[in-house]
Amino acid sequence: MTLAYGAKEFGFKDQVNVDTVRPAKLSMGDDFPWEHSGWPAAAYMGKLIWKAVARVVVAARDAMDWFQSAARMAAKEGLPIRWDTPDGLPVLQAYPKLDTKRIELTFGGIRMTMSIAQKQPGELKLDRNKQVNGIAPNWVHSMDASHMRETIRRCWGHGIRSLGLVHDSYGTHAGNAWKLADELRSSFVDMYTDHDVLAEFREELESQLPEDAEIPELPSKGDLNLDRVMESDFFFA
Fold first, then answer.
1. Tens of pLDDT along 44-92?
2. Predicted confidence band at 6 (pLDDT cuts at 50, 70, 90)?
3. What backbone phi and psi angles, to 5 degrees, belong to 183?
């Protein structure tokens, strides 16, 4: 799941370590089968998963690479990235370079160190790495947010006033659950049918870059039939 959010091979290894190896070490005690922390085992499995995902989830990997290459072009020009969501909300990604200061403190007799980050003085300078690594997850989250807002608008039109919403998870009273499920799916299908969101993003980025900048061509699309979303039992939590 984290691939489209910019996760790299090391991130896959770390996820295996945090989600599997560390809990096993805590629960198994002396029966833990690997030496020390078990990191080599996590690294081995994480590498295999990384290779497998690259073969199976081809489109998501290509899309992530495209976003990062496009963001790299903007970062090279020292430009933030701006785009509009399908429902018209403007989004600006501008991670500033920060100066980090370490402060030694004593609190309740305990010595501790705090790190405080602040923007560098003078003209805004962007953190190129954060600009590149943040673009895929930030864009995906902005699309999810646009979808959520449209779902809420449609539910409101049906008189549904009680909704529990966390990022991309939805809840309502049991009596309204089926209507919410229908609107969730139909709003998603309509949004991605009415908008070629990748092409729109590319056009907006192109208008922000110098005229001689050549943005890479978009990755090819698959053959997913969006209407099948209406039949999905587990489309959303």
1. 999 999 888 878 877 778 888 899 999 999 999 999 999 999 999 999 9
2. low
3. -70, -35
Q: Which residues are catalytic?
A: 168
- On whether residue 100 sits in a domain, the answer given is no
The answer to whether the beta carbons of residues 133 and 199 sit under 8 Å apart is no
Containing structural domain, residue 200:
2-92+127-231
Q: Is residue 110 one of the residues assigned to a domain?
A: no
Contact 7, 46 (CB under 8 A): no
Domain count, the chain: 1
Question: Average of pLDDT values for 92-117?
Answer: 86
Which residue in the block uniquely carries the two structure tokens 């673009």?
135
235 φψ region: left (φ > 0), alpha (ψ -120 to 50), beta (else): alpha
The kind and range of the H/E element at 82 are strand 81-84
Residue 192 contacts residue 87 (beta carbons within 8 Å): no
As a whole number, the mean pLDDT across the chain is 89
> What CATH number has the domain bearing residue 146?
1.10.150
Q: Do residues 87 and 152 make contact, with C-beta atoms less than 8 angstroms apart?
A: no
What's the pTM value of the predicted model, to 2 decimals? 0.80
- Whether residue 66 lies inside any domain: the answer is yes
